[in-house]
Design brief:
The structure is a homodimer.
Chain A (H helix, E strand, L loop, with lengths): L3 E5 L5 H10 L4 E5 L2 H9 L5 E8 L3 E2 L1 H9 L3 E9 L3 E4 L10 E4 L1 H5 L2 H5 L5 E4 L3 H10 L5 E5 L1 H6 L3 E4 L9 E8 L13 E10 L4 H10 L5 E8 L6 E8 L6 H13 L2 E9 L5
Parallel strand pairs in A: 1-2, 1-3, 7-8, 7-9
Antiparallel strand pairs in A: 3-4, 3-11, 5-11, 6-9, 6-10, 12-14, 12-15, 13-14
Helix pairs in contact in A: 8-9
Chain lengths: ~280, ~280
Amino acid sequence: MKKKVAFQGEPGAFSQIAVRRLAGNRAQAVPCERFEQVFRSLDEKQVDAAVIPIENTLHGSVHENYDHLLRFDLRIRGETSVRIVHNLIAAQGVRLRQLRRVFSHPVALNQCLDFFASNRHLEKIPFYDTAGSVKMIVSENLKDAGAIASSMAAEIYGARILKRSIEDDRENYTRFFLLQRPGSRSLVPPGGEMKTSLVFTTRNTPGALFRALSVFALRDLNLAKIESRPLRGKPWEYLFYVDLLADSADPRTRKALGHLQELADFLKVLGCYPRGTAS
Amino acid sequence: MKKKVAFQGEPGAFSQIAVRRLAGNRAQAVPCERFEQVFRSLDEKQVDAAVIPIENTLHGSVHENYDHLLRFDLRIRGETSVRIVHNLIAAQGVRLRQLRRVFSHPVALNQCLDFFASNRHLEKIPFYDTAGSVKMIVSENLKDAGAIASSMAAEIYGARILKRSIEDDRENYTRFFLLQRPGSRSLVPPGGEMKTSLVFTTRNTPGALFRALSVFALRDLNLAKIESRPLRGKPWEYLFYVDLLADSADPRTRKALGHLQELADFLKVLGCYPRGTAS
């Protein structure tokens, strides 16, 4: 049976590229309007898995999704980084020199300012969604309008890529997590190096973080990410997100987490998963 | 003479609220299209100061601005946190029941989904900018259209607030920095607790961060923020952003920074400034 995988956005959104990469070509991608719906539909067993963005190299961590990871009892089972490539797309038969207007999400339009600076006759027109702008120019059969979106959006809506990779900054990557319910069989094959993601809180006494990190340093366990975030409504207290380059089943990691439990007010392991590649 | 302060966005953007709060009512806010232009105009002495967003409670750190802080030789002289309050705004004389469409930036529209769920007859129309959408509905004198933006945008464009604070999440704050050139006199009065922001790199050997943090823990200096970020083009190497609850002129802080210089491959103090309040 086809696995159902929820994601936020329109069909053809960058998240759907991550769905394909993490759950395979045969998975059925299920679009949702809000991130909360993505989590809820997985929690309520309407889907088998979910794919969420967790950080972007230009814009930082998606804190809203960290909040949902705390609230819902789900597990991270895989990760992948997708390079955000913006393409100029038009309906079949439309040529670059016919264009007068380009539709897309304002964030995407703003990430292609060099392209617009050298094509001054093109008007930037904000639209609700990158992939949605491709859907619209195709269904309205616009001859003077293009859209900026992923190559998958061009593929899904039968449109044509007029110019590939028109983004200003090529170092624009989004990291995605694959989530499943606890106890369910992982869709991602095991193997290779593992990562373990966790969140913990400490009281904001000088050196509290230093002591917490000692549980890893004393066992030669390496961190891939650390980030602090003030706890809502509790001034002076902090959440820390940590990604360990370690397998949570490894006895050394288990001892470190047991040790951290003694020092932290709160500790939750969000998941253990094979380290992803970027492309 | 009036101080000129650069910010990114249209007049009435949330950044301009931060300009007013950090540089006073008499400062002249100078809008720029891109963040890079904000930094460049300060660096090239076209303005006296600049205000930039650095992190948001929902969306995380603005990494692009951390990159510019590394590239340009400027100093942080102040900080403030602005609560992002979205208001439904219309031209003078227009009433709520006349509205059929609401213009704003898609991020703002998406942060008011509860409002739209209970006002289903209102169509969400994406626009380039929050404040820009107010400017447009006023200049076009639209009778059936509203806009979502800051109260300052309503004030600047002579529009009327129909409904205040329609955002779904009240815990939406953006933290802003005031930047000036090194050696220039601070626009922010000294006093109160101080913060020092710095960035450093370590090689990704197990325990490298632990050793780096020891320079603060051993001296009872407290951290307000820590965040790691992979170094572009250098896999396995990391940048760390740290905010210390300390004055960089304090001998204890100076010793800690000297100690950190021994352990880190690279260290830059971005500024020392009075701790801001949130409102």
